[in-house]
Write a structure and sequence with these properties.
The chain is of the alpha+beta class and 848 residues long. A ten-stranded mixed β-sheet has the order 3-6-5-4-7-2-1-10-13-12, with no helix packed on it. Strands 15, 16, 17, 18, 19 and 20 form a six-stranded mixed β-sheet that branches. Strands 8-9-14-11 form a four-stranded antiparallel β-sheet, with no helix packed on it. α1 crosses α3, α14 runs parallel beside α16 and α19 runs antiparallel to α20. The chain is globular, with a radius of gyration of 28 Å. The mean pLDDT is 94. The structure holds zinc ion. The site of zinc ion (ZN) has 5 residues, from α2 and α3.
Amino acid sequence: MTESRYRLPRHVVPHRYDLTIEPDLENAVFAGRVEISVTVEESTDEIVLNAIDLELDEITLTNENDDILTAAVTYEEDTERARLALSRSATSGDWTLTIAFKGILNDKLRGFYRSTFTDQEGKLRTIATTQFEATDARRAFPCWDEPEFKAVFGVTLVVDSDLLAVSNAGEVDRQDTGDGKVAVRFADTMKMSTYLVAFVVGALEATDPVYVDGIPLRIIHAPGKAHLTGFALEAGAYFLRWLASYYNIPYPGDKMDFIAKPDFAFGAMENVGAVTYRENAVLVDPHVARQTELERVSSVIAHELAHMWFGDLVTMKWWNGIWLNEAFATFMEMMASDSFRPDWKTWLEFAPLRGYALDTDALASTRPVEFDVDAPDEADQMFDSLTYQKGSALLRMLQQFLGEETFRQGVGDYLRAHAYGNTETHDLWVALEKASGQPVGAIMNSWIFQGGFPEVEISHSPEGDGLLIEQRRFGYLPEVSGGEWHVPIVVRLSDGQMEETSTAIVGVTPEEIRANGPIEWAVANAGGNGFYRVRYTPELMDGLVERLDQLDPHERYTLLDDTWAQVKAGRVDSGTYLDLASRYRDETEAAVWGLLSGSLSRLHRIVQPDAKPAFESWVRTLIEPAAERLGWEPAPGEDDLTRKLRGTLLQTLGTTGRQGHARERARRIVDELLESPESVDPDVAVAAVYVTASAGTEADYRRFFERYEHAVDPQEEGRFMYALPQFPDTDLARETFKMTLDGRIRISNGPMVVGRLLGNEFNGAQAWELIKENWNAIIELFPPMILKRAVETIWTRHDQADDVRAFLTTHQVPHSEKAVAQALERLEVAQGLAQRESNRLTGYLQRE
Ligand SMILES: [Zn+2]
C-alpha cells in the first residue's frame, strides 16, 4: 500500500503517556498536560501527531542528557494532525515530549464530551465522559491516534473532590490539590491502543466490587439506580470467568468497571477495564424486564468482555480490520450467552439477525465484509449488519465446519502469539489452519473479500440416488449477479429408512452427494448455520413441508425465511408463502413465530384496503390456536422463551390481527401496569403497551408520555418511548417527531423514534414530509452513526418511493453513502413486492 496521507509517519514512536486532565464541568472545558515517552528512530526536526479541536502549548522535547528542544505547532484540520517544528534536530534515541493542552467538552457524544442527567432531587447534573473509537482520542489529548501505536497509559484526573473519577486501571493514589480538588492517579494500563483509553467524571455512584478470580468488578451508575445492577454483576462475573477459560488466557486488566452512561451514540464500548454502556444495555431489573431486554443486557456485556482479549489485548493493525474485531466479539457474545443461559437458545435467537444480514447482503449495493480503508472515517461505514451479523454468522459457519474445540484452540493460539500486538485478518486464518489442517484462508477469503452470498440449489441427481448441489449468487433485483464461494454445506437426508448427514465444500462446479437409495427428503442447511439461502425443487420442498416435525427449530426457521426471501425476490408468490406459513400453526419456538409475525405484518401493509379484513382474519386463524394454548398469564415454572412467545403472539393478534378481544384485554392490562408495574408479566405488559398504542387515543398518549418521562428503569423508558410513534393519530405523530428535535427525546434515541414514525401505517407519509422540512436541523443534531438508524427504515416509504429517491439523491447524509444506497435499494425491493403481491394477495384471500 502506498503511504496514505492519513497514516502518521513512523520516525517517532510513542511508548508511554503520562496524562493529566482537569475537566471543568461547569464551563464545559478541560485542560491537560501529557508527557509522552518516544523513541526517535531517525534524527528529525519535526514530529507529527494527531490533535483536533485542541490548543497545544508549552511543547518541549527533552532527553536524559538534559537536551531541551522547543517546538512551534501548526494544525492540519483536514487530516486532524498537529505538526511540531522542533527548535533544532532531535537525534535518534529516547526522548520525552511534553505538551500542555486545552479543549472543549463538546456535546457531540465523541472525544471528551459532556452529558447530563436529572438526579433524584430533580437537579440537572453534568458528567464528562469519553468515546474514542474510532479516531476521537485526538479530541481529548494529542497522541498517535492509530491502533498500531500501542503504549502504556498512566492517567491522572484532577476533579472536584465530591465527584467520582474512573479510568482504565485501578486507582493508586489520591492527592488533595488544596483548592477543593483532588488529583486521582490510576495504575499503568497494559500496552494498548489510544482508542481504548477512557475517563469518566461525575456525580456517579459505584456498587461494591464483586471479585472474579481476584479482579474487582463494579457497576458505576447515576445515583438511585443501585437496585438495577444485580443482573449485570451476575452476568459480568460469569462472562469474565467463562471467557478467560475459553481463551485460556487470564483477563489482561487489573479491574473491571461497567459505566452506565445517560447519553451514548453506541450501545457500549470496550475500553479496557472501563466498559461504557447505554443505561438500558447494563441497568435492568430482571423482575420487570421482558425477555428480549434481559437478553440484550446479557449479550452486550458478553460482547464487550469478549473484546478485552479479542480487540484489546490483540488489536487490528488498521481500521480495515474492524470487521473481524466486531464480528468475533459478536460471535463470542453468542457463545458466552449460550453457556450462561442454555435455555435462552442463543443461536436460534440469532437467526433473525443473520436474516437481517442476508437481507442487506442480497442487495447490489452490499459490500465486501473487509475492504481497504484509507481515511479512518471510512471505517465508520463498517459499523453495520455486514460487520456484526454477517461477520459473526461466517465465523459460526466456519466454527461448525472445523469443530468447536479445534476452533477454540486456534483462537487461543492466535491470541497468545499476538498478545499486546497488532494483527491482520490473515493472522487468524493462519492460526486456524494450523489447528485444523483445513484451507481456512481459501474458504474465508471467498466470503470476506466479495460482497453477497450464494443461493444453493438442490435437486435430485439425474440417476436418482443422489442430490445435485449448485450455487449462484442470491439477489432481490436482477442486476445482482456474479461471484463464487467455497460453501461449506451440511446436508441431512433420508431415503425413508436411514437418516444421514453429509458435509461438502461446494465450489464452482455442481457437487453430487450420493445416497444408498432414492432420497425421500433432504435439508440442505442442516442445523441452520450456513450463510446462504437454499432453493429446493418443488418435489424436495414438498417432502420437507410434509415433515416439518422432523426438522429442528433452526431448520424450520431457515425453510420459512428462505421462502420469504424468494417472495421478496419475486420468485415465489405470497400465496405460496402463506400456504407454507399455515403449516406452522403448531410451532412452539419464539424465534420462528417472530419471523412469521414480521412477514405477516409486512404483507398486511400491501394488501389492498378492501381485502385487509380478510387478511386480518387469516392472521387470526393462524395465531389464535397458539395464543389460546398459552393464555394471557404465564404458567408456574414456565420457561423464559415461552413467556417471550406469548408476548409475540398477543402483540401480533392485537396489531396485525386486529383482534378485538386482544385489544380490549391489552387496554385493561395497561391500566393495571400503570397502577403497579410488577403485577403484570413483562412480556405481556410490553405487548399490551404496543397493542394499545396501535389503536390508542390522545389520553393514552398522554399517559404513555408521562410514564416515559418518569420511568423507573431504562427498559420502561424505552418501551413507552417506542410506543409513542405507534399511535395512529396524525397530530400526535407530529408531536412525537417534534420531541426528537427539542430534547424531550434524547439525541441518542431520536433517529430510532423517527424510524418508527416512518414505519407507521397511518403517519409514515407525514413523517417523511417532516423529515424533508426539518432536514438541516436533523443533519445538524444527530451524529451520523445514529442518524443511519433512521435512514435504514426509509424502505417503509415505498408508496412515496420516487420522492424519497429524488430527495436523497440531492441531500447527502454524512458518512452514510453505503447506508443510503442500501436503503434506496431496499425501497425498490419493497416497491416491487407491493406492486407484484398486492393484487395476488387479494386473489389468494378470495380463494381461501
Ligand atoms: Zn464490539
